[in-house]
UniProtKB/TrEMBL annotation:
Annotated TM spans: 45-67, 79-102
A cellular component term, taken from the record's GO annotations: membrane
GO molecular function, one term: metal ion binding
Residues of the signal peptide: none
Superkingdom of origin: Bacteria
Originating organism: Microbacterium barkeri
Keyword terms: Heme, Iron, Membrane, Metal-binding, Transmembrane, Transmembrane helix
Protein name, per record: Succinate dehydrogenase
Taxonomic lineage: Bacteria, Bacillati, Actinomycetota, Actinomycetes, Micrococcales
Compartment(s) of residence: Membrane
Amino acid sequence: MRVSGVLLVVLIFGHLLVNLVLPEGGVHALNFAFVAGKFASPFWQWWDVLMLWLAFIHGANGMRTIVNDYVQGKTVRTALVWVIGIVAALMIVLGTLVVFTFDPCAGVFGAFENPDSALFEVCQAAAN
């Protein structure tokens, strides 16, 4: 867990730097098109998935340690450890699916999208 902790620090600060510091306008530059542009790159997909996996594994292990330290009953302790593991695994699978199946053009042609946006034009060109 020491290695995952160090790796998480690098991944999280890199994530914050790229999302909040480097874009012109800072946090105000974050919008759907910004996220769609990032998720179009396999590099950023894997960056975010690695951060997700390590965060859930690291957090679940920490919760398991707390349960093992403070829960007295063996049956309850075992049940809680299983619940933590199942929830962490489920969230890892769902988060990974979201990252790798993210389609920035889904729903773009709906009533809430601005037809003047660059994302609308890109998705319309891709559909034709």
